[in-house]
Write a structure and sequence with these properties.
Keywords: Membrane, Transmembrane, Transmembrane helix. It comes from Clostridioides difficile (Peptoclostridium difficile). This is Drug/sodium antiporter. By secondary structure, this protein is mainly alpha-helical. The chain has one domain. Helix content is about 80%, strand content about 0%. The chain contains 4 helices and no strands. Helix 1 packs parallel to helix 4 and helix 2 runs antiparallel to helix 4. The radius of gyration is 14 Å and the shape is elongated. It starts with a helix and ends with a helix.
Amino acid sequence: MCLEIITTGAFKGLGRTYIPSIIITILTGARVPLAYFISRPEMLGLNGVWWSITLSSILKGTLMISLLYLY
């Protein structure tokens, strides 16, 4: 989550605010179906909701830091 916040600020400083807004919107929206899939009783149960938040935050940070290196 820290990388996500730092790179969002860096993109804002570069004047490219559309990149983080697209990534954040898509991957935050993906949390709900991922949480639904992972939180089934035969999978992780309620812990699956927290894992979906963790996984999407890691993916957002990794993707945004990779795109920042390209710009």
